[in-house]
Amino acid sequence: MTALTAARNTLERAGDVVGYPVKASVKPIQGGIAVLHAGYAAPATTATGLIAIGRFEETVDNTSGADGALSVHVKRGTFRFGNSSAGDAIAQADVGADCYIVDDQTVAKTSATNTRSVAGKIIAVDSVGVWVKIGQ
Question: What is the C-alpha to C-alpha distance for residues 115 and 58, in angstroms, rounded to an integer?
Fold first, then answer.
């Protein structure tokens, strides 16, 4: 393509809720941490190479479907998830640092020797869990 020489109607995706095609053989649950796995939305798990994109806004059952057979809405933002335990628990001193995915509702302080993907930035910690900013 060449550079513009006239006005252009450039389409946009507005808002913090975006639809993504769902990975094959998974069931994203509303409220869970959403990740991209090879370009498809999937529930967060302990694994490397996942990209955290937000929180599932609905439950979609694609357990019998192929990659992209269904789509799901994901919201970017700051959400409270469960804190890990023992030496991997997130504390107030960790605010501002990255946290890591344990499962679709739990985050941890470390990558567990490079076996976990980044969930997002720790915004706050309280007695119920960890507030995490997810998505760009």
Answer: 28
